[in-house]
Structures are given as C-alpha cells and as structure tokens.
Design brief:
The protein is an alpha/beta fold. It is built from 6 helices and 8 strands; from the N terminus they run βαβαββαββαβαβα. Helix content is about 30%, strand content about 25%.
C-alpha cells in the first residue's frame, strides 16, 4: 500500500506551536496536503491525551480515526486520514563524561499502552509542562520503558540530521554512529 505520511507532529501543548493545532486542524491540513497518515504527537501531555481519547477511535492495525461525527463535518469527499499515537521525548543525561541530549519519537498501538507509558514517564519527570517532555533519562532506559509499555510500541531517533539535538546533532553528545551505540540505537 502506498500513502503519504507525516509522523513527527506536535500539538498545541508543545512550545512554539499554534494554539489552533488540534486534531481537526491536523486532519484538515493533512487532506489539503494529500496526507493520509499522520501522528498525534504529544500523547504524554495530560490535556492532549484526554482530547485524543475523546476524539479518536480505533481504525485497526494500531491506527486511529476521528469520530464519525467529527470526520463528517471537516473532511470532504470521504477523504481518509488516520492517526498514530506518538510523542517526541527529549532526553538529557550524563554518560561517559559527556552530557547527552537526544530527541526520540515514540509510537504506541493503543490507549492502554499510551497510558502505561505515560505513567512510567510521569514517575521520571514532568510530562505536563510541555507536549515534548524533557526527561533526565538515558536513551537506553527510555527504549526499555517504551518496549515494556505494550507489544507494538517502538521508538525511533527524531529528526536525525538536524544540527542540534538529533542523534547526530552537534549538541547531542555523540560524535559518530559508533558513539550512538552507547545510547542503545
């Protein structure tokens, strides 16, 4: 199956995003741009998670769709937009005499896994202050928490080529792919 997707999105609860960045607007703009699969972003944020649970319903295979009443109001010509539950996590930690600063994108297949991950991360740090939480957590530990949250949950490096806090960014604390192996990737 061929489709266009944007899997690294933020909600109105992340710094430097539009206050109108809600699920309906994301779906409308996905349709305008020809995207059929987008992520929710920021599901660890309590208010956003409540909105996600209120407006999205399972569509099968780990994807979600807007409730039918919402979808009918905003999407034209039976256009299909599906969502994946996702969040970007910023980790800052010390390892091997260096401070490591890496951004990750986490995907989970269902609300139960999302809730389990949210609870674990809330025990580590503040997940309510920003849609993109910043946690003092080793990347490897984050990976383990993600995998323990439920089957089908996974993590990928965020914006790998950007110059700052990507896995290969100048501020990440890693100088090569070999160094990144220390991070568990």
């Amino acid at each position: 199956m061929f489709f266009y997707a944007d899997l690294h999105i933020h909600s109105k609860y992340s710094r430097a995003t539009s206050a109108s960045c809600n699920l309906e607007e994301l779906a409308v703009w996905a349709q305008k741009k020809g995207l059929t699969l987008i992520s929710t972003g920021d599901f660890t944020h309590p208010a956003w998670f409540n909105e996600i649970k209120e407006k999205l319903v399972p569509a099968g295979d780990g994807a979600f769709k807007l409730r039918e009443d919402i979808e009918k109001k905003i999407l034209k010509n039976n256009y299909i937009v599906r969502f994946l539950l996702s969040v970007e996590i910023s980790t800052i930690y010390k390892k091997g005499e260096k401070t490591r600063k890496v951004h990750h994108v986490v995907f989970v297949p269902d609300f139960k896994s999302a809730e389990k991950l949210r609870q674990k991360l809330a025990a580590v740090g503040n997940i309510a202050s920003d849609g993109r939480p910043i946690l003092g957590l080793d990347s490897r530990d984050l990976l383990e928490i993600v995998l323990e949250s439920g089957e089908g949950s996974y993590i990928i490096p965020a914006h790998i080529w950007t110059p700052w806090f990507s896995v290969l960014g100048s501020k990440s604390g890693f100088d090569s792919i070999q160094d990144d192996k220390i991070a568990g990737f």
